[in-house]
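agent> fetching stored inputs for the iron/sulfur cluster docking request
agent> found them:
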Amino acid sequence: MKSNYIGKPTSRVDGPLKVTGQAKYAAEFAADGLVYGVVVSGEIAKGSIKNIDVKEALSLKGVLKIFTHENVSGLPWFDKNYKDQDSPAGSPFRPFQDNKIMFSMQPIALVVAETFELARYAASLVKVEYKEDKHETVLMDHLDKAKKAPKGKVGFEEPKSRGNAGDAFKAAEFKVEGEYLHSAEHHNPLEMHATTVVWEDGDKLTVYDKTQGVFNCQQYITKVFGLSTDDVRVLSPFVGGAFGSGLRPQYQVFMAVLASLELKRAVRVSLTRQQMFSFGHRPSSVQRLALSASADGTLQSVKHEAFGETSRFEDYTEIIVNWSGTMYKCENVELKYDLVKLDVFSPLDMRAPGAVTGNHPFESAIDELAYALKMDPLAFRLRNYAEEDQMGGRPYSSKELKACYTQGAAKFGWDKRSIEPRSMRDGNQLIGWGMGTAAWDAQQMLANAKAVLSADGKLFVSSGASDIGTGTYTIMTQIAAETLGLAIEDVTFKLGDTNMPEAPLQGGSWTAASVGSAVKAGCEAVKAQVLKLAKKSKKTPVSGESADDLIIDDGYVLLKKDPSSKISISELMKQAEVGSIEEKAMSGPNPINKLKYTFNTHAAVFAEVKVDEELGTAIVSRVVCAVAAGKIINPKTAGSQIKGAVVWGISKALEEESMMDKNLGRFINHDLYEYHIPVNKDINDIDVIFVEEHDDKVNPLGVKGVGEIGIIAVAGAIANAVFHATGHRVRNLPITMDKVLGLSE
Amino acid sequence: MNSFSYLRAVNVADAVEDINTKNKAKFIAGGTNILDLMKVNVERPEHLTDLTRLPLTEIQNTEDGGLRLGALATNAVTAWNEQVQQRYPLLAKAILAGASAQLRNMATNGGNLFQRTRCYYFYDTATPCNKREPGSGCSAINGYNRIHAVLGTSEHCIATHPSDMCVALAALDAKVNVTGTKGDWVVDFADFHRLPGDQPELDNNLQPGDLVTSIDLPAKTFSKVQYLKLRDRQSYAFAIVSVAAAIELEGGTIKEIQMALGGVAHKPWRDKSAEAMMIGKTPTKENFRLLAETVLATAKGYSYNSFKIELAKRAIVRAFTEALQAV
Ligand SMILES: Cc1cc2nc3c(=O)[nH]c(=O)nc-3n(C[C@H](O)[C@H](O)[C@H](O)COP(=O)(O)OP(=O)(O)OC[C@H]3O[C@@H](n4cnc5c(N)ncnc54)[C@H](O)[C@@H]3O)c2cc1C
Ligand code: SF4
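agent> prediction call returned; pasting tokens
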């Protein structure tokens, strides 16, 4: 059928808008009388403000107001007013609450002026005197203060141990142990965080924000500022990358709204690149692994302990170790996860939070154990393949990981690998091949959508979801067009507006499944109406035919048994004098299936590195990433998700790191020339394979989501490849040349 | 941004006069460094003298057989200039190892000499830094100093000079032509930049307001050269260690050898006595290692950068090995 769009590579429907600059981002919306707020960032990590002198800044003509803890009051006291849908347990950060400094680069003032340049200059004139207290900012130095992570964050599950890993380890013939370190990483999407607030009489606000959830942002604003949802409309039609940074309302939202209400005019606040290092980050971790196996290659025990960091004011938790209990079959598993409070901002979800962090050490240890056994790392993984979820023994709704292994290995040429480290080379270059396995949740959330079909045959579908670059606009358009049987050009999908039906935050790789199911349901409801019209229609090829005997394709209703008998939808609507058909739908997870099955996506990653033997420089020359993620709605945008994820995995493995200066308690490489992410030259061949995976239990679309699965196993696969190349296992990411050479730890 | 006045100079005399009569004035050429520094409030000039219209963009032969590079010629034009490509491939390689194509299209030869260190702390006004604010202290010495110097450091500053181009210019014995209120003079490249000592705020030996008009390359050229740059990603990153290596053999032994190191000191690092020691030796890995050991004999590492010492030694050996493979 012409309207079969699901599963076809489809270019982004919003692509032309983006490449011609017509797609507008939060800091680009114009407003009459717009004024600009620039944030002043604090200079110390811990202590208090003794004095903040704004006189000189305020004396400049055109500077309207400077907000500080000294002049902001009357806001609610309770934490619950500041909590958002992604808040961990604790007390969310509130700008300007008092004179306490809790982390370096804490926003301590907002300078609002007639022009951006003036606000920026005035901000540089604000003079602050501090009283400094001793700070603790390096995780490794404070492991003695680790505490059990409290429950409370949505989705945090305490890791469950089973069997007796300690005894099994002691008794086992083959064993490995190691300690691993990861540095913090900061969100650095192209678009920095920004908010434009347009004010109207009666404190009615239109807020353009960089967010992964307009409803979350709206709720936050209404609770903090005591406004009604009718008076606060939040829009976020385009997001220049987010991957977690836009899950929680960031402090510029608070500031822009505060200033707008106070000054009764439009205000914009954008953060600088440096200020992107002033809020949530992927937390650093210290992890200890101990694995053992018997001579036949059976995994005997897994012990995985992790220390994560959090702020003084919130307990940010991640699922770091739980995955290690379910990746492979193993009877004795001991998992532990503790938190250390530091004088930093609360960490924040970053693409596949926790899983990325735990996977590199765990898959490194698996690799190391395979060497101890003198087994091929893939054969070892297959030897311990888990057919069902090891945590609780539930079956998977589907799990085509074996196909990922087989197809990935074939594409990569894994069978030509020689097992000994340092056994493959090309001149000065040592060649290494490594692999890793990934798993991630396939979740579905409650979501709503609205579909409106007008008499001209055009369909308009909307849901207050977001598209952080993942391709949401495109796949929703595909789903809608196929469900209703329309040409894709006749379908428009819109998102990112609180005036639309409510959708969940875009995170956790659940948008395709959640919003997609709601869009499908909404379009099915419209379709049912169209088929009713067909049946009732007078003197048409489809008159009197029941829904079962009809199909809709390319804007026409046709007889199943004789597709040449057809009539266009618009003619049907005209005849019935129906101006438009509008349906709303809500869709959520199937509660019974949720109890019966575990829903996971899987991936196998194969990586080749070339390491200069004398100089230690490593490049990733090729990666194959084979993914099992249910139905792939759009192989083109989904493929881009996986490729982008692999690039980020390479970044994590070799380059990316926020460097904490332990004396200043400050991330010190806070710009993009020293905070390294890959450039074109760092990226070579990346092959993406989507294996067939049929799943009728996960959701009506059979979709599992691909936003996160691609990144999880990349760093581990690369680290394993570096070991294969050099015989040296670097346990501290990123793997820089000095570490490869063993010249630094 | 703080406000500043601005003049677009059209000849050298005007430029020198303008900068020397204005308060807190700075030159601006390609702007790729000065504007970044102004945005983060490290430089706050009250006046900018724009050099981009000065007639100093030519690259031409000198009477003594060398090549003169105009101070306002861009890095890109210089690197792709036919004379530079053919006679001074070391310089071309060094320039092309730096920054990105976009930056090289803007960056000028004069500006490249004056670019300031990439020390994280220097760029962050919230932190103490003797180079930015004399007497405030050096955050790097006991801080995060992975990218810092291991040679010629002082207790006041351990910053490096970040340029690639300058490393090649140092290795090639270039000379810098300067014009100031006192007239015109020439500075040997080796004497252009300085070590931090107790005045780390000074990067070079010129006075504020002195204008570099051109850079002269000597007549002597090398055919066996290599610029090896080790960095934390494949492109668009400053050198952790770099080596500009030039060598000529005669009858199987070393006839001439010139080398400078980047990423290890407050200036491109040359050790002429170590080079002299190599004359007449056979070009073996062992001998290059000996050179490397000699050059780095006084090197001193800090908490995060000690690896640079061994890495620099290996880089030297590799650079010469590759230089000799060049045809
Ligand atoms: C992201 C990034 C990455 C980079 N990577 C590299 C790299 O890998 N390797 C590398 O070598 N460089 C690198 N650079 C630096 C770049 O090469 C320099 O910024 C550039 O060469 C400066 O030249 P300009 O003409 O833009 O100087 P400007 O920014 O205009 O000026 C810089 C300074 O020089 C002074 N000045 C300029 N011309 C003259 C003159 N004729 N006489 C006297 N004073 C003068 C100015 O007053 C100013 O103080 C990078 C820069 C950036 C922003
Ligand atoms: S090394 Fe030099 S530039 Fe860096 S902080 Fe110390 S004094 Fe400043």
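agent> quick read of the result: Chain A has three domains: 15-21+444-588, 31-134+189-272, 143-185+281-443+595-740.
agent> awaiting further instructions
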